């Protein structure tokens, strides 16, 4: 595929590399019909005086690498439809839209107009007012748009510092699950530092102290995901790739949802040790579709008895080769909870971050748009590339069965309430299936594992451990337990 891209020819190639690749004037600009100039800036050809000497192999190799990265990112954006003018996603006016626990409905304008006219003809409008209050939905589609654009959008980036142990300066083509995981963690941090009700005020003056504090925390969260190997970005792709290397993963490898959940857990634990701002945050990853309450208490309870805020990741496999649709309603029900921070999954080898739904379609943030790296160490770095204005939807029936659901609990009471209401969401309605998506279990998963290891007959498991406490999904990209009909 790459050779075909090279043959098309791209503006921006230095002369020496163009000639070695066999470019001619007739091959230039064939991409122009596919590339939107407002999405991908045009790059000017180098002049003769600026040509690189052919015998300068080191510089020439570096140029070739940059050109290759640029071509791949542009081809990726063509492939996933990001370079053409974005077509607006259609939303039904009749059906409510759910976004991470918030329900948005179209306001019944015609009824409100009629009710308002009727109210004027009455001596007292109390009865009509009550009726209007009953059907006058507080949240509208416009509010949904504000909510959606306030979620953090973390995508492929190019031309960032080389990833440790590799020559990669872009994650284009392989880092989508890592980016999806970053977005889910970012939503947890938004809830933790800003609150679920926070909305990004685009180009609005910061008048109050609270607005200034929110802006500071907004930038702090984005900075923590900056694409650079710096201690101020503890959740960068550089950090995640380095942590993955401890489990035998390399830059360029594809990650499953469960593997990413464990990497995020390690990254938060590491960040809490180095940065006090994250010290009140804990992460627990469910084991084999089970949340062990003693393990949760161990990671959350502090020496003084207080609880840390908890991020809960539950890796699932809802079917064999494709999604078992009896669990589709369970997924959408979980997305209606205000403690849910979304689902990472997508289609096979095509990760997406699901944050809501309408009818039988899941609303998602797509990490596959490759953008220029932003230097988050600069003061007032631009924020627009970290927020998406174009919601996308996908039929839930097309979702890959391997996924990971995330939750955020500010305190122990929220987690306790979740344990009380969650069981009714985890078993399919009107189906002859009584096995829940996941369970809450007393005790510790480690203790149970030890008992199993000491028993004469061990219980078989589909989860593969590498022996160092990490998961190995090289042979099976989706290593979690399967929940079947």
UniProtKB/TrEMBL annotation:
Identify which top EC class this enzyme belongs to.
Answer: hydrolase
One Pfam family of this protein, by short name? Peptidase_C54
Stretches assigned to the Peptidase C54 catalytic domain: 142-420
GO molecular function of the protein, one example?
A: protein-phosphatidylethanolamide deconjugating activity
Q: Where in the cell is it found?
A: Cytoplasm
Q: EC number(s) in its UniProt entry?
A: 3.4.22.-
Name the source's superkingdom: Eukaryota
Q: GO cellular-component terms in the record?
A: cytoplasm
- Which InterPro entries does the protein's record reference? Papain-like_cys_pep_sf, Peptidase_C54, Peptidase_C54_cat
From the UniProt record, list the reaction(s) this protein catalyses.
Answer: [protein]-C-terminal L-amino acid-glycyl-phosphatidylethanolamide + H2O = [protein]-C-terminal L-amino acid-glycine + a 1,2-diacyl-sn-glycero-3-phosphoethanolamine
Keywords carried by this UniProt record: Autophagy, Cytoplasm, Hydrolase, Protease, Protein transport, Thiol protease, Transport
GO BP annotations listed: aggrephagy; autophagosome assembly; mitophagy; piecemeal microautophagy of the nucleus; protein processing; protein transport
Q: Which PANTHER family match?
A: CYSTEINE PROTEASE, CYSTEINE PROTEASE ATG4
Q: Can you tell me which family this protein belongs to?
A: Belongs to the peptidase C54 family.
- State its role: Cysteine protease that plays a key role in autophagy by mediating both proteolytic activation and delipidation of ATG8 family proteins.
Its recorded name reads Cysteine protease
Which organism encodes this protein? Answer: Bombus terrestris
């Amino acid at each position: 595929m790459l050779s075909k891209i090279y043959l098309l020819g791209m503006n921006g190639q230095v002369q020496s590399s163009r000639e070695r690749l066999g470019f001619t004037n007739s091959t230039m600009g064939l991409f122009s019909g596919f590339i939107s100039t407002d999405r991908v800036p045009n790059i000017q050809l180098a002049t003769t005086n600026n040509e690189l000497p052919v015998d300068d192999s080191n510089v020439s190799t570096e140029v070739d690498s940059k050109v290759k990265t640029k071509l791949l990112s542009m081809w990726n954006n063509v492939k996933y439809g990001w370079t053409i003018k974005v077509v607006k996603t259609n939303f039904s006016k009749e059906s409510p839209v759910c976004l991470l626990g918030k329900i948005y409905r179209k306001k019944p304008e015609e009824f409100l107009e009629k009710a308002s006219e009727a109210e004027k003809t009455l001596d007292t409008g109390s009865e009509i007012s009550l009726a209007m209050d009953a059907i006058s939905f507080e949240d509208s589609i416009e509010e949904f748009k504000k909510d959606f654009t306030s979620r953090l959008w973390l995508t492929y980036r190019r031309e960032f510092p080389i990833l440790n142990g590799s020559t990669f300066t872009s994650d284009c083509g392989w880092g989508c699950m890592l980016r999806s995981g970053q977005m889910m963690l970012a939503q947890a941090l938004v809830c933790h530092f800003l609150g679920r009700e926070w909305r990004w005020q685009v180009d609005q003056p910061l008048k109050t102290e609270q607005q200034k504090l929110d802006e500071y925390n907004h930038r702090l969260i984005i900075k923590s995901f900056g694409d650079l190997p710096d201690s101020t970005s503890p959740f960068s792709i550089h950090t995640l790739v380095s942590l993955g290397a401890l489990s035998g993963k390399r830059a360029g490898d594809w990650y499953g949802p469960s593997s990413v959940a464990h990497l995020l857990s390690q990254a938060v634990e590491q960040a809490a040790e180095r940065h006090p701002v994250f010290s009140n945050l804990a992460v627990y990853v469910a084991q084999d579709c089970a949340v062990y309450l003693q393990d949760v208490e161990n990671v959350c309870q502090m020496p003084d008895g207080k609880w840390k805020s908890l991020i809960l990741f539950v890796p699932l496999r809802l079917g064999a080769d494709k999604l078992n649709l009896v669990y589709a309603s369970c997924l959408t029900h979980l997305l209606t909870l205000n403690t849910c921070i979304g689902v990472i999954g997508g289609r096979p080898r095509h990760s997406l971050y699901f944050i809501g739904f309408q009818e039988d379609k899941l609303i998602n943030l797509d990490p596959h748009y490759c953008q220029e790296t932003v230097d988050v160490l600069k003061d007032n770095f631009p924020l627009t590339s970290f927020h998406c204005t174009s919601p996308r939807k996908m039929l839930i029936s097309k979702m890959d069965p391997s996924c990971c659901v995330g939750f955020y609990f500010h305190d122990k009471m929220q987690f306790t309430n979740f344990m009380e209401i969650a069981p009714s969401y985890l078993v399919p309605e009107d189906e002859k299936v009584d096995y829940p998506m996941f369970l809450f279990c007393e005790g510790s998963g480690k203790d149970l594992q030890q008992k199993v290891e000491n028993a004469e007959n061990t219980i078989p498991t589909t989860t593969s451990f590498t022996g160092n406490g990490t998961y190995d999904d090289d042979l099976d990209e989706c290593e979690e337990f399967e929940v079947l009909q």
